[in-house]
Amino acid sequence: MADPYDADGADHAAGLPLRQFLLSLHYAYPAIIFAYYMATSTVAVCTLQTISSEHAHPRQRAITWSLVFVILTYFAQLLALGIQGAVRHIFPFADQDTVIGLMSCTLAFGVVFAGLSEATNPVWYPYMGCFGLALVFEPLLASLALMVRSPESLHFIAFFDISAAAIRYLAVILALGFFFEGNRSARQEKGTDSERQSLLKTNSHANHDSDSDDRSDGAQTNGYGSTSDTSTDSNQSSDTDDDENPYERRQRQASEAMEKRLKEKGNWVTYAKSFMVFFPYVWPVNNRALQVRVVLVGFCLLAMNFINFLIPRQLGIIMDSLSGRNNTNPWNEVLFFAGLKLVASEAGLSLLRQWLWIPVEFYSFGAISTAAYSHVLNLSSDFHDSKSSSDIMMAISCGQSISNILESICFRAAPMLIDMVVAFVYLSATLGPYEGFITIATAAVFMYIATRMIAALKSARRNEVGAWYKEHYVRQAGIQGWSTVASFNQIGHEEDRYSTAVEDRVTKTQKVYFGYVLAYALQFLVLLSGLLAGAFLAVYQITHQSATPGQFIMLLTYWAQMVSPLSFFAGLGKSISRDLLQAEQLLEIMQTKPSIVSKEGAPPLRFTGGEVCFENVCFSYDKKKDILKNINFTATPGMTVAFVGATGAGKSTILKLLDRFYDVTKGSVRVDGQDIRDVDLYSLRAQIGVVPQAPILFDDTIMNNVRYAKLTATDAEVHEACKAAAIHEQIETFSDGYQTKVGERGVKLSGGELQRVAIARAILKRPSIVLLDEATSSVDTETEQKIQEALQVLCEGRTTFIVAHRLSTIMNADRIIVVTGGEIVEQGSHDDLIRADGKYAELWSKQIFVKPKEDKEPREDKAASKGRKGPNIVNDLSAEATSSELAKVKSNPINGQANGHTNGQANGHTEDSDDSAETNGDPTTPAHKKEV
Ligand SMILES: Nc1ncnc2c1ncn2[C@@H]1O[C@H](COP(=O)(O)OP(=O)(O)OP(=O)(O)O)[C@@H](O)[C@H]1O
């Protein structure tokens, strides 16, 4: 390449070492600036200084303008050199290192400028460090440039250079000055800040584009990943629904969790370490064969890098061979090229790599999903009560994101980076540093534009997702609530609602789609400009015999090969942050420890009859509001204890403590003298059978649902349990009998059938302690009677705890405990409590519990069944019993009034209601009403 200094006589033999030094500085200076900026910015991000930096610098704008001047001076110098070259017909118009140095400085300071102009509250040392470096290097470069010039070469351009350098130096000093002056005035103002602070929240970042940096911006404004932090966003979002859709809510919660953990951990490195919990699932720890596969995949990737390097080179060789520039045989070269293409194709290395990788990938996916599912099942009630099941399921399915992150970094980013570095080095080596510079500058501009475009499309994308959820919701609501829609004649309304939602979604999708098309167009324009610049340079070199046509072809092929890595890198940050957010949701679950676990080495429960003792039990769900206060009672083996009281009093909570779904806050629960916290949890639950208020069945056959209590039970055992639960005959009438599918959560069964299947399930378990939580609620009289009969079978001889609102169902319990506001206010038998004339008597008087017992049983049988030692649950009141019970209540002065009132009501009903009429929530019939 021609050296203009020779033409100008600037290069002296005596100044050769200085010239060499200057040459290396031209390359080193921008490289140092760039390396320093990237390294310190990475440290600032990794150590969360970008998040904690909260105060805007008062002179940030002035500093940014100083930087603009610095960049402009480099431009001006380049322009002057170009003009001089054009006027004097010299090309290249100056030393290669001088021009590359100026261009690289423009690029390096351009990167610094891009960072500074986008940052709201920047961490300053990366920027100030660059200015500091400029303070040292600029005078050094300027004086060296002067020293290596001969006096006769000090014409106009030299003076221009010196002036530009001087202005630049001044701009650097000004930038530093602004920084320190701004700091000083900020410190002074800080003292008076508190007095001046507005009472209203200021929106200092209103115009700040959050999209530029998901992480830091969110943290600095409305929290990490905030969804409504900019005016742009809020404006754009205002035309959509204000409500947060489930996707946004999950994203926001994950962002908040991420920010919280980041702050706790202090930096990204320790934060990333917490993901090590997934290591055993991602890396096949105990599987040597899979480990070997991973290593081989690594070799495949390296081989692929090498092939990617060889292919463009080989094309160049073929070209030169065809044009006779080298002495190779084009046939052989083409054959070799074909071989390379085959190895690089989907049928070559790629196939091998996939074959090696697929088992590893599926190992990881399977291992994470199973571990997450198992972890969730082993978590305690507090976790399951506080999380929505859809969120948990979403989080479990996020396992894939962990392997996505690793795959993106190890198998895509790393090889692509190697490809790009190799291409850059090879192009610089074969076509000179100008070509190298063009490559790197194009890549930098491409990346900048691509990341900016992705960020700019963020809010449009968010709107699209919101519209998509809205459409989904409207559709789902219409279909699920079809009967309501149809019966209220609102089909037209629903159609309109849906079409509006679809229109809205389509408009927003189009916006996003068009945005992406535009972004791609812009990115490819950048690439095209770079390619054209590179191609012109190569053509110049070919015409000046310093390059071959083969190298030109090689250049074009490398450029084509660089497109996909560049696009990938532009979207890498975004995709990793999305995967990280998803992984965060799973990590949160995986880090949750079950609150109810068996103590280490806890012995199994020694069951000796089923005595249950609550001693000074206090409990709170949230450690703030006391739900149970000082609960004391003992149930002897085989006893039936009923809990009554107002809704929300804490009755079901008592049952949950016994089943150890929660642990007491104070006091203890003992079974046969053993604190349930000291025994094996599994052995405790093995002794307890629960019939909940709303039993949940699996979407499976009745047979399998009942058998769930004892997976080894035979069909005959299941039939027996169902007979005992008085549901067998009904099941037999179903078209598929025991093989009938019950539907999701048992929706295909009626309430009474569902409850009896649940009772059959509990009977099959043969528990020693029975918990019935309003097991006969919401069913008709006849079904209730059947259920009560089934319960008698279940509870016989077992310690039984019943929660009931209908007092008629528990009046024969051995002990009735009245709970009010989490405290036991009364306990005793029905008669004792009626006599005591307290809360229970009051409740009793309010309930008209008159219900006919169809006298199907012969009198003797009835007497026999009365004599049987059963669970003492009343399934009904006989007419005599009813009269005597009411007489008792009537004899109470306090109840006389109440009774008069209730009787009045009952009588009122008697006159004008039919057989199915209910009074005060209890079914009544004319037969009894007459008696009353
Ligand atoms: N998982 C939970 N987390 C927080 N609070 C809860 C939880 N479960 C119940 N509570 C609260 O505890 C109190 C007692 O609830 P509990 O279900 O024991 O009442 P209850 O007497 O059985 O009521 P009901 O007769 O209506 O079933 C209520 O105020 C309820 O809101």
Automatic annotation (TrEMBL):
Cellular component, GO, one term: membrane
PROSITE patterns, alphabetized: ABC_TM1F, ABC_TRANSPORTER_1, ABC_TRANSPORTER_2
Keywords associated with the record: ATP-binding, Membrane, Nucleotide-binding, Transmembrane, Transmembrane helix, Transport
Transmembrane portions of the chain: 27-51, 63-87, 99-117, 124-148, 154-180, 268-284, 290-311, 409-431, 437-455, 513-540, 552-572
Record-linked InterPro entries: AAA+_ATPase, ABC1_TM_dom, ABC1_TM_sf, ABC_transporter-like_ATP-bd, ABC_transporter-like_CS, P-loop_NTPase, Type_1_exporter
Chain intervals with Polar residues compositional bias: 892-908
Domain ABC transporter: 612-846
Gene3D superfamilies: ABC transporter type 1, transmembrane domain (1.20.1560.10), P-loop containing nucleotide triphosphate hydrolases (3.40.50.300)
Region (Disordered): 202-259, 851-932
Compositional bias (Basic and acidic residues): 206-217, 246-259, 851-864
Pfam families for this protein: ABC_membrane, ABC_tran
Family, similarity comment: Belongs to the ABC transporter superfamily. ABCB family. Heavy Metal importer (TC 3.A.1.210) subfamily.
PANTHER family linked: ATP-BINDING CASSETTE SUB-FAMILY B, MITOCHONDRIAL POTASSIUM CHANNEL ATP-BINDING SUBUNIT
Entry protein name: Heavy metal tolerance protein
Originating organism: Parathielavia hyrcaniae
